[in-house]
């Protein structure tokens, strides 16, 4: 089922009377990156995925986004759909949104799945890279930036064996509104550091990381695991930063094991 909530494109699958999982995608992608997970978990869960404002089919408006405005959007969707303590699942930028949401409104969620992400805010080098990305989009258009950025997200196995699928992903993201993509870069550049809140997370938490992830390497996510009480960590084989796409079978199994334990 597709619907529009506060201008955002929202996709729902499964029985709405079942326990809900809300999936928050990464940058610069859309809700379809969770396709395999939704196909699997909508059998027993009510699965919600949406296009973050400015990406996919959600409008960019003026592109003046902050991480807080992204949290506002997430909260609006949860309230509008009357989701009762959903499991929150976010990857990369979706993980930044999830981590801040867990800090700002922890009572909203029953469990968290954090994929290929980190709690630290950008350091000066990271902020400058975001600024360079915005300038490049202004100077060259979105396509060259999207191609280089997305290729860096994937591990060697996927790039060598799934070339057509990778090209399709790049092509899809290259068609997004450049204003929205730059707005996401601004939001990530200005996001707060959520590291101090990790020890306050008291709901079941699963951390997933690709063994070849260059953007948020296993060492980074293992350190995050240590700071969250009783958090579980699963490393995904033959995968870089985009684990749900690169190795959906292992990711689905990790999530399945996790949700079966927490009930």
Explain the overall architecture.
The chain is an alpha/beta fold and 263 residues long. The protein has one domain (2-262): Alpha/Beta hydrolase fold, catalytic domain (Rossmann fold). The chain has helices spanning 35-41, 67-80, 93-104, 124-140, 142-153, 156-161, 163-174, 178-189, 218-227, 243-246, 248-262; strands spanning 2-5, 8-13, 20-24, 46-50, 87-91, 111-115, 205-210, 232-236. It has an eight-stranded mixed sheet with strand order 1-2-4-3-5-6-7-8, with helices on both faces. Strand 3 (20-24), helix 1 and strand 4 (46-50) form a beta-alpha-beta unit. 47% of the residues are buried.
In short:
The protein is of the alpha/beta class.
Q: Secondary structure elements and their pairing?
A:
Blueprint: E1 2-5, E2 8-13, E3 20-24, H1 35-41, E4 46-50, H2 67-80, E5 87-91, H3 93-104, E6 111-115, H4 124-140, H5 142-153, H6 156-161, H7 163-174, H8 178-189, E7 205-210, H9 218-227, E8 232-236, H10 243-246, H11 248-262
Parallel strand pairs: 3-4, 3-5, 5-6, 6-7, 7-8
Antiparallel strand pairs: 1-2, 2-4
Helix pairs in contact: 1-11, 2-3, 4-5, 4-8, 5-7
Brief descriptors of the model:
8 strands, single chain, Rossmann fold, alpha/beta, eight-stranded mixed β-sheet, 263 residues
- What's the order of the H and E elements? EEEHEHEHEHHHHHEHEHH
Helix/strand-derived class?
alpha/beta
Percent range for β-strand residues: 15-25%
Query: First CA to last CA: what distance?
Result: 26 Å
| Helix share, percent | 40-55%
Helix count, DSSP H or I runs of 4 or more residues: 11
Strand order within the widest sheet?
1-2-4-3-5-6-7-8
